[in-house]
Amino acid sequence: MDPSLCRRLLAVFAVLFAFGAGCSTGEPAAAPVPTAEPVVEATPEPTPEPSPEDLPFVDPAVDATDFAMVVDPNGAFLRGGVPDQEARLLLFGAANSSFIGGTIVDELVVAEVVMSDAARVNISAFAALIPSVSANLRIGSLKLDGDSLRIEGSAYDRAAAVALDAGLRDSGLPNGFSVSIPEPGTESALQTAINELDLQSIQFATGTADLTPDAQAVLAEVASLLNDNPRVSVQVEGHTDGRGDAEDNLLLSQERAQAVVDALGSLGVDVARLTARGFGEQRPLADNETEAGMATNRRVELIVQED
Known about the structure:
By secondary structure, the chain is an alpha/beta fold. The chain is built from eight helices and nine strands.
């Protein structure tokens, strides 16, 4: 056979074979689609909590010798002014390491002034007291105000109060620094002492808030008691008899309570510890049908506030 003919026949057979293979499936086989690799998104790194170094609160006008730590069962709250960032970090670090598991709220304001040697001593003493305050003070505050460092509030028990007192006196404070400390039972003992005074002698000229001379004498005794217990707060309550208009009596009782507060302030009591409240004729102790009953109802009461 002619070689050229053979080549042509082979070419024809090849075309027919290819055509038959395509028809056996009805459609040309689809080219495989490559499977895309799954996209894995990167997990963002958590934003770190800001450290105290990142959060300076600066106010050159702040008093850099007046700051406090307020304590409650959930942790501590730092507030007030400090000389510089070094002092702020010292106080924050002491609180953070003492109140394990508690929340520390830091609102100290930096004055950015040169820390004096005296301020350094006071701040170091304050920081040194924080562990004892954390362990022994149930609720209250540790305050530094100029040359006065004091602990206010309620200790867990008498032993805790003794520990706080010892800590204050061993804190390295300079001579002349005044300190005060709460002691369990102070409020009830003071209330008893006040109630033993002749409070019924705290009277006023009729229809006015002008204290009588006898009232001034009793208030001098009250002031002496309050000045011996400088951390205790007192509510001064004014009461009237039932004569006259109820609204006028309410106003008069408020004015009389405020007159007592002012008189105690003039006798050296810190009026920030005193609250005036008038009740008018709302809380009588006797009926208002007799002179004796009305005299009993016209009164001033001093109520020691429990922490």
